[in-house]
Prior knowledge:
Largest sheet: 7 strands, mixed
Radius of gyration: 21 Å
Low-confidence stretches: none
Strand content: 15-25%
Helix content: 25-40%
Structural class: alpha/beta
Strand order of the largest sheet: 2-8-7-6-5-3-4
Mean pLDDT: 97
Amino acid sequence: MIYLDNGATSFPKPKTMIFAMEQCISNYCGNPGRSGHTMSMKTAEGIYNARKSAARFFKVKDPSRIIFTKNTTESLNIGIRGVLRSGDHVVTTAMEHNSVLRPLKELERFGVTCSIVTADEKGRISRQNIERSIKSNTKMIVMTAASNVTGTKMPIKEVGELARTRGLLFLLDGAQGAGNIDIDVEEMCIDMLAVPGHKGLLGPLGTGMLYVRPGVEIDPLIAGGTGTLSKNIAQPKSFPEGFEAGTVNAPAIIGLKESIDYVSKIGSSVIGGYEEELVEYLDENLLNMDFIELYGPKPKEKTGISLINMKGIDSQELTTILNNEYGIAVRGGFHCAGLAHKQIGTWQRGGVRISVGPFNTKKELQILTEALWKINKTYQ
């Protein structure tokens, strides 16, 4: 199969990651922080090393400020629910994933209000419009690094500097940016960074992280066992244990360490540049097809995503045909981001997302292009 659904999860995975997970499961995999025996301590050491690798990758000074989660959704929920209180106001954008918009919607019941900044037809958000939405009771700006629908890159540093100047918290959803955009939490004035392990970082499913800047007051989302302060029935707020209640997915986290190191050796900017080269090649071919509608900005303004529709064929039907008849994996529909589709004009029909990764080739995109020509000829 030709895999072009890296916006959902990356594939294939580095062999070093798979080997590290197998070694952990087969040879030592004790419960970290719960026992003093050799197996437990070796597992805890592996998790600590993963935390250090993640800290280096995102230029985090204190590795303990990185919390391991099961995905970006959990990370965002901790960052949003753990900070906002009744009377607080939040600024976010219409290009956000539902992992941002739905928690904010839920918090409306508890007195939290939200302003959603609109985008242009290419999915672009301006710093000026975000600034205009700030109110006297605004506490936080939440923004994606890049749209999961169009790939549109957002003005991360500009918005981070705006938030810092205005005394606001800046929570960045790095789901579509970590691994192909250089993210520096210090330089970009990021107070909280939510990322997946399984997308651009090439790690296993079921892994994510949340960075929380020192000084940010935040409550844990889940209460339970931490391996520390066991005599106290109140949930501790110490980092990172107080925010990782219960047994963590140790083999996956240890595997994630290897994936982060793999991406780090290549470089996010190098991977991002290669993916830009791929979508530039793809978009040039797509623009030559009068039966294809291509959405979003130019390749230099987006990550490795091209969103399309074929005239006369439903987006999910096209996805099914590509899978069943040509062995090509893409994603059709609304991508858990309905408002984003509203912004770019695909509210009624959704779209087919083609998302490349570092292991894709131009030859694979040429095969996709030929398949689209054949489908149009067959089904129109």
